Amino acid sequence: MIASRESRKRLGQVFTPEDVARTLVRWAVRRKTDHLLDPSCGDGRFLAHHAVSTGIELDRENARLAQERVPGATIHHTEFFTWASSTTCRFEAVAGNPPFIRYQHFAGRTRQLAIELAQRAGSTINGLASSWASFLVVTAGLLKPDGRMAFVVPAEIGHAPYASPVLSFLCSRFRQVRIVAIREKLFPDLSEDAWLLFADGFGGRTDVVELSLFDGFASFEWTGRPTRRVSLSSWRDAGCRLRKFLLSDSHLALYEASASRAGVSRLGEVANTGIGYVSGGNEFFHLRPSEAKRYGIPGRLLRIAIRRSRQLPADCVSRQTVEGWISQDEPVMLLDLRGAQKLPSTVMAYLNSERGREVRKGYKCRNRDPWYAIPDVRVPDAFLSYMSGRKPAFVRNDTECVCTNSVHAVSSKNGMSLRTIQQAWSHPLVDLSCELEGHPLGGGMLKMEPREASNVLVPIGNPHFTPSEIRILKEATAEMRGWRNYD
Length: 487
Description:
The chain is an alpha/beta fold. Helix content is 34%, strand content 22%.
């Protein structure tokens, strides 16, 4: 019996399509005598394509299936980093699909050992990195001179901050590094997009990342010339974002030139963008008007809150907007007890209710004093959606509303008018900049972190763009939306 879906998710397991596994192994292995390693072999589908092979697998049932599928292979049922820390084996070839475990779950001794081994190999991996980053670095260190490595990798290798040291490391250890970006999903059932990594000539070095672009895996051929040759200096100038080079030279050149055009600013130059408050129990701290009335919560202790992006109207949060939420009995009333000297008996009764006793046990609540006083509640000038489909919404706050960390809080600076920023937000340059400075979340969604929002180009000073330039900006935006599978 194959491991349950929950178990596979916990272990970061995604089983690779047969044609993808076969292609990666056939490229990585050059001779029949080459020894192939798959550091997270799952049920053995990579190992099945080469007789001389070793696989490492944490899940006992998958290790058994791999041994049945490839009887001649050496299968180690163990945790990879523990095995890598003591093995003396070295390999001519590596191929596989490393586990994709977010840093929140990639924890404890395993993560610490992974970071230490990566450091020993010559790369400093961020503590917020997902597991695949350490897998690539540590596995590379198990190659013999001139060895080859081929991996399925998350598309976030093209934009995640912690991917930067990984790519730098690969270029400092291999003669050739190529990333193959495939628009069509390799794993149709997953929201995450996946690309391919090929690294040749371990022990060499290169100052170029080759980037090949394909619409689908069926059209992929390694023998073709790369679509782009991206120098490491150009990559660094682009904020260590390989994803920007999905654009053509002409499209990217216009975008880069726009950054220095008179009248164009970064959003961070005219406004501050930050996350909203973290309550530690949204369902408890946000009440419906009917609930607030039933519990006898005084109005002076309640604030109207934006809880999520889809709550935002198109242009501004107005008094009429708020009245609509209240008339519909939406749960938008934040219980804001900061600075309250003496709490009314009705509030104390609510805090000591069964729900209140349960909420105070949560991590956020039990680590603040008093547990019910939510920090960082502030009234911003505008709201910026955190996750979006077509484009992040920029919405003025014409009321005293506050927001949770599911929405970004924006405050103007240097005397800049919020209306001026909002008017500029509709420009095609902003559309493209959001695509390039934000990043795909999966499922066609675009995610915008505060630091990414600060980098968005905004034509505040009404700079002139020719009709041809506007057309190019729109074409480039459509291209990038296509790469994140936004329909």
